[in-house]
Amino acid sequence: MLTPTHADIVSIAPELILTIAAGLLLLVEAFLPRFRRLLSGLTMLAITAAVWARLSFELPGEVWAGMLRIDQLAAFVDTYILIAAFLVVWMAGPFMRRSDSECGEFYALILFATVGSMVMACSVNLLPIFLGLELLSIPLYVLNAFLRRHEVSVEAGLKYFVVGAFASAFVAYGMALLYGASASTNLVEIGRQATELGFLNPLTAVGLAMVVGGLAFKLALVPCHAWAPDVYQGSPTPVTAFLSVVPKGAALIVLLRIVEGMHLLQISPRWVLAASIVAVASQTLGNVVAIVQRDIKRMLAYSGIAHMGYALVAVIVSGFDGGTAVLVYLAAYTLMNMSAFACIAQLSEREDRPHLISDLSGQGYNRPVAALALTISLFALAGIPPFIGFTAKFAVFRAAVNEGFVWLAVIGVVNSLISVFYYVRVIYVLYMRPLPERKPDYGFSLSICAVASVAALATLLLGIFPTAVLAAAQSAILGLVR
Amino acid sequence: MGGDVLNDHLLSVVTLGPTVFAVLLLFIPMRWKQVHRVVTLFTSIVMFAISTRLWTGFDPNLPGFQFEEKFAWIPMFGITYHVGVDGISLLLVLLTTLLLPVVVLAAWSLDIEHIKSLHITFLLLTTGMIGTFVALDLFLFYVFWEITLIPMYFIIGVWGGPRRIYAAVKFFIFTMAGSVLMLVAILYLAWFHHQQSGVWSYSYLDFLRTAPLLPTTGGMFAPGLLVFASFALAFAIKVPIFPLHTWLPDAHVEAPSTGSVILAAVLLKMGTYGLLRFNRALLPDAWEKLAPVLMVLAVIGIIYGALVAMVQPDLKKLVAYSSVSHLGFVVLGLAAGTQASTQGAILQMVNHGLTTGALFLLVGMLYERTHTRLIDRYGGLAGVMPIFTGIFLITTLGSIGLPGLNGFIGEFLILAGSWAEHPVAVVFAGLGIVLGAVYMLWMVQRVFWGPVHITANHGLPEINLREIFVVAPLVVLVIWIGVHPNTFLEPMEASVRLLLAR
Q1: Which of A385, A394, A413 sits opposite B181 (nearest CB)?
Q2: What's the pLDDT score for residue B30?
Q3: A290-312 per-position pLDDT tens digit
Q4: Nearest-CA distance B33 → chain A (Å)
Q5: What is the pLDDT of residue B3?
Q6: Mean of pLDDT values over B174-186
Q7: ipTM of the assembly?
Q8: Tally of CB atoms within 10 A around B11
Q9: For tag attachment on chain A, is the N or C end more exposed, with fewer CB atoms within 10 Å?
């Protein structure tokens, strides 16, 4: 019987704060529905408290009998997940009110999913990883379908549920095989055995392939990407924003822990080849198909597939440089996506209709702030300096070149070039097309605009002064590579 | 700004100053168009005045970089904010700062939408262009290089002609296509530097020591040759070198005339500057192997550009193709690689900026009056606008290399410097000069001489005082360089000698 020590409890203070807050939100919803308007504020308060707890309490390292590793890496990942959740909740308030769907359950589910992804990212043991994965996925199935009067939203929820359940089954089965091969659920132990052996025995290889395959669903990597466009399009925009960064971040960190622990780069050329193919295919398919999209949320879904392809390059390279690049990429991707989706939430008339790119005609002058924020985030996503998207791509390709993967860097930059085409197209619609005869009736919300502006400004400023993010990422990754 | 800041950070002030003012403009309400114009003109004149201190404070006897500033920027990757000018970049920086007030004044009367955004983009563009010329860290260089894309994209796409979106996107994609591989090449150079020295650095001065060691033997895929090709592709698209020039006529024709001026006068020079600064200096072995390719393409470009220019019915397109031809001379001078031809090429970069810039301005003035750029819609303008005709003629003659004006000096130095080693190329390039005279003078004849066959053209107003102020600085320099080129050749001599010695 495991008796938690004081350090164990303190180490998961942020998760506890969020869980308790989620429970309170449900109670408020049940007994004080008049105070519904305060819910998003309360949620943001809880997230702020969680960030404060993570950053101010000491980082004990391994806790809960070696199940979780609360170190600099955990702090980095938690902070960025919490920042993402904060921005999502900030924009969700007015959005859900506008759609007439605001209620406590929404925020509680967001918080549960946040806790799930934090647990997933901090775990070094297969069991809590799976628990975190489920805690993350199940609330998301509901959140996707939250606009239950809209068919597209329900469709998104169902799709994500079917695919997600499938992915979970993959992961669970793969974990069972890994356990069978190594008699341990501890990632460090599994990694040590593989490293000592110097190659992957068949059972480990199959287990690994299934776990990675399951994670690839969460990451929307080719060939597990097909759900992304429909789910992105149908989910309420704040949920899409959440979905596009938080699960992907958690899954990438798990993947990085596995790859780094097993030293897959050194012991398994087959992994390197397979993962490279997946990375290249994700980048290419994502970027090429994004070109023909007419709905901006679908376009960003395909762009997300491509972006995870770039991030996977950094995972393949792993090590100090690669790991740093993964973290920087996640931070950058979060900011860019938050800003972009906030702008979409702002420049949207009705949620059950497609968000056509052509509907944005002339909005550059009609809604200058949101349009500028969208422009900045799209230039950043395209990897054009001086925005942080460039810094992140630079870190990834630098790591690739330094490890001898020049060809992956070349394919990556060529793909960036392809991506420029569709990002820039949105910008010319914004600024170079006249306003249509019938002006779209976009509502105005200060909070959503604030999210867009804050994230866009951060994209710019951190792009010019990336030292703080890079330093944090480097010290976080030191604990992993040792 | 205190005197100290100005002295210690002169180059940074010149580079980043425009952006600071662009941010200020953001806070001025959109309605106050006149305020935007005044503030931007004031900024650009102040910036030019400050940049003249680079000229006066520059010591022509020192071959290395002056006004250097170096700060750690991203220390974990060894990236620094490192800027400096030598004799090669000095003239280009001054050309840029000179052109900013010129284009702001030229755009003064334009009654177009979004004046505020236009001025902000011009100021941001200036930072990007100057930064490209002064950056001594390759990461910084790449950032500035790419930054110029965004404002130029907007200038063409928002304020351009009927096919502006096509032209803007084409410009963006073409230029980006060149530069993405350059990024990999820079990363590779940094990795190679780390292999050689154990230090992470993106510094140009560090790369000068290690990059020449890249192997260039062992077939087409030798690292040195691939890195060279990656850089060369980026620069060749920007110059543009035949056959990568197809974006240029579209961009020029659709861009507003102020945009064309900046594009022709400065942005294209970023390409030739890059060839000299990076390809020539960092990879001398590969340069030796591949310079003949550049030379052949340059000569093809000279003749092709001239022939195509000859048949253009549109004035702007004519000037655009003449740019392809003129920049062929610059590339030829660089590829020949002698002291004289290189100095000639650098001077010719400035010359082209002055004459083509002035031509685009003058064509823009004609367009404002007649709303057409078709050559056969003019004729006999000499009688209607004599002063304008005079200025146009001087510029044209400067462009085709009449002795006593600037183009002659540049082209003469290039051809004389290349003659000893590459007589065949010089012969063909000489043919290009003849063709240049043909299409330019033929154009002048059709536009200005003969009878006025369009009645509406009888009433065209003469060039006004503001417009004279716009072109005057350029015309003065056209004559100055023609009469006393040493003013401009001396400061670059030592730097060119050092660069070619590597």
Answers
A1: A413
A2: 79
A3: 999 999 999 999 999 999 999 99
A4: 16
A5: 56
A6: 91
A7: 0.93
A8: 22
A9: N
B104-135 pLDDT tens trace? 888 887 767 788 888 889 999 999 999 999 99
The C-alpha atoms of residue A115 and residue A124 are separated, in whole angstroms, by 16
Q: Of all helices (H) and strands (E), which one includes residue A34?
A: none
Q: Which amino acid is at A202?
A: P
Return residues 338-397 of A near B (CB < 8 Å): 365, 379, 384-386, 390, 394, 397
Nearest to B192 by CA among B182, B183, B202: B202
* DSSP SS3 for B244: coil
Tokens 């009433």 correspond to B459
H helix or E strand, kind and range, residue A275: helix A269-291
Give the Cα separation of A47 and A15 in Å (integer).
Answer: 10
Show me where the domains of chain A are located.
6-481
Distance between CA atoms of B70 and B81, rounded to whole angstroms?
6
- Confidence class of residue B1 from pLDDT cuts 50, 70 and 90? very low
Q: What is the rounded distance in angstroms from the CA atom of residue B312 to the CA atom of residue A110?
A: 63
For B83, the enclosing helix (H) or strand (E) is strand B79-85
Q: How many helices (H) and strands (E) does chain B have?
A: 23, 2
| CA–CA distance, A386 with B328 (Å, rounded to integer) | 32
Residue B279: name the closest of B321, B239, B325 by CA: B239
Encoded tokens for A242: 């959440």
Q: Closest by alpha carbon to A389, among A307, A318, A306?
A: A307
Of B146, B165, B177, the CB nearest to A428: B165
Q: What is the 3-state secondary structure (H, E, C) of B147-182?
A: HCHHHHHHHHHHHCCCCHHHHHHHHHHHHHHHHHHH
Best A378, A397, A401 residue to mutate vs chain B (most B CBs within 10 Å): A401
Task: Report d(CA B151, CA B134) in Å as an integer.
Answer: 19
